[in-house]
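Researcher: Quick test of sequence recovery. Tokens follow.
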């Protein structure tokens, strides 16, 4: 029970040892708070588990970027031939899946270790247990051996994140993997069906295909739902041209294991009703994620601000129980991005323990989809701009471009495209920047700061670019969609 004299074991207890929770805990300690972090990873349906650090470090951004890099390097080896490198037997070049996953997992384990050491050095108590509420100030942690540990805290932060959702079809949980499993998969995935066309599904299909594994994607509605759909089309066009197969308007029906060990997947086109099937070595579910709130016993704390999908609705991270907060992917209607969770966690800790008042600004957060041809964006999509402001009040500047590096190996440039969505009235404040091309994340990060500062088209056009780079293409934008002029580049250096 929470103490009646107002003393607590900790000033802050954080449930969840991912990016947001750890950032909040470390910042709180910097301001003199006594802090505990509870973290426990329930194994995936296929038995995969991992260490401290949350989704990003273990089964998200970090291993995804490393797999993406491995895929890009494989393509670069073949491109090197056009640049004069003598590569013996290029047709024999292939990925060693076991070596790749071992290298990725070794890096992740090193990060797990550094994280634990940092918590110890900062004197943050790390409890490797599954936490739940007993009352508004008391948590119970179930440890690996089944024993229970109780603790009380003046403030509690829920930062449990989420896990992959499995569709309710025969064979999904028994035979399919998810992003929880792919980065440590103990065998080459072979011919793979990816169910879902959000950014996780497309990223996985993209690097698997580039690593030499046949990849097929089932798209239920549209690819990259919530992103600018013209840019999403560029991304999937590039993937199709590289060999990824797409089945649009399709939902999975069942997955059956054959005597050969392979998986027979069946799906249905929701427009025509036609059913199809094929045999795969691996089926990867990427049909969204759900928040891990059910196991928290939230009613015991009096927390009622929970949405139908289990997320917590808290405008300023504060729940309906004043001393209980939430950060990260568990929050409703917030970007599910690691840097968002980190920044929100730090700001919350400063408000709680340093007298600060700054709140997280969830608008204009940049992000990048690490597909074979990357897509980076900041601000709103063209569709949302039209919906909010009307077509007469929006100007869209756009261009195709030719990355210098693509010329010699004669790489496809059809999908290298960018656009700026701006207010039509002077000075044309920019509402969104969108870029499909190489190193999109590196390109868009700097422009994110400019968007925060309210950059206008006039300022962008008067910025001198760095030549030759792909990022400079934003400074060269001058053709509007409204004009009907050809957005293809006429020359390189004039």
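Model:
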């Amino acid at each position: 029970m929470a103490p009646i004299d107002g003393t607590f074991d900790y000033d802050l207890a954080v449930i969840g040892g991912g990016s947001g929770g750890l950032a909040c805990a470390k910042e709180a300690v910097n301001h003199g708070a006594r802090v505990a972090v509870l973290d426990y990873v329930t194994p995936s349906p296929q038995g995969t588990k991992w260490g401290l650090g949350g989704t990003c470090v273990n089964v998200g951004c970090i291993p995804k970027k490393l797999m993406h890099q491995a895929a890009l390097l494989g393509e670069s080896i073949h491109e090197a031939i056009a640049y004069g490198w003598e590569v013996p037997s290029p047709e024999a070049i292939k990925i060693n899946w076991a070596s790749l996953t071992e290298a990725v997992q070794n890096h992740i384990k090193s990060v797990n270790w550094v994280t634990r050491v940092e918590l110890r050095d900062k004197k943050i108590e790390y409890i490797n247990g599954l936490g739940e509420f007993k009352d508004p100030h008391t948590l119970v942690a179930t440890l690996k051996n089944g024993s229970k540990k109780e603790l009380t805290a003046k403030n509690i932060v829920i930062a449990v994140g989420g896990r992959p959702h499995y569709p309710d079809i025969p064979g999904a949980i028994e035979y399919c993997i998810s992003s929880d499993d792919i980065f440590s998969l103990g065998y080459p995935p072979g011919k793979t069906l990816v169910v879902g066309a959000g950014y996780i599904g497309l990223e996985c299909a993209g690097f698997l295909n580039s690593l030499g594994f046949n990849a097929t994607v089932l798209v239920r509605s549209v690819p990259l739902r919530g992103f600018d759909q013209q840019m999403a089309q560029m991304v999937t066009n590039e993937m199709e041209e590289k060999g990824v197969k797409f089945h649009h308007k399709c939902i999975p029906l069942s997955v059956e294991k054959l005597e050969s060990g392979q998986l027979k997947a069946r799906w249905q086109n929701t427009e025509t009703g036609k059913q199809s099937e094929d045999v795969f070595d691996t089926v990867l579910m990427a049909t969204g994620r759900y928040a891990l709130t059910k196991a928290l016993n939230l009613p015991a704390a009096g927390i009622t601000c929970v949405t139908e999908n289990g997320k917590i609705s808290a405008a300023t991270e504060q729940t309906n129980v004043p001393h209980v907060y939430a950060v990260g992917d568990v929050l409703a209607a917030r970007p599910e991005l690691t840097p968002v969770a980190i920044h929100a966690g730090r700001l919350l800790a400063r408000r709680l323990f340093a007298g600060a008042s700054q709140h997280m600004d969830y608008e204009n957060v940049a992000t990048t989809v690490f597909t074979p041809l990357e897509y980076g964006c900041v601000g709103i999509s063209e569709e949302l701009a039209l919906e909010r402001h009307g077509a007469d009040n929006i100007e869209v500047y756009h261009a195709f471009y030719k990355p210098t590096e693509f010329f010699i190996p004669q790489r496809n440039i059809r999908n290298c495209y960018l656009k700026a969505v701006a207010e039509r009235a002077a000075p044309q404040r920019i509402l969104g920047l969108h870029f499909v091309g190489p190193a999109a994340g590196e390109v868009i990060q700097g422009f994110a700061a400019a968007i925060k500062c309210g950059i206008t088209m006039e300022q962008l056009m008067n910025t001198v670019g760095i030549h030759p780079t792909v990022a400079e293409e934003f400074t060269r934008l001058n053709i509007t969609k409204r004009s009907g002029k050809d957005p293809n580049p006429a020359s390189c250096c004039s």
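The chain has a mean pLDDT of 97.
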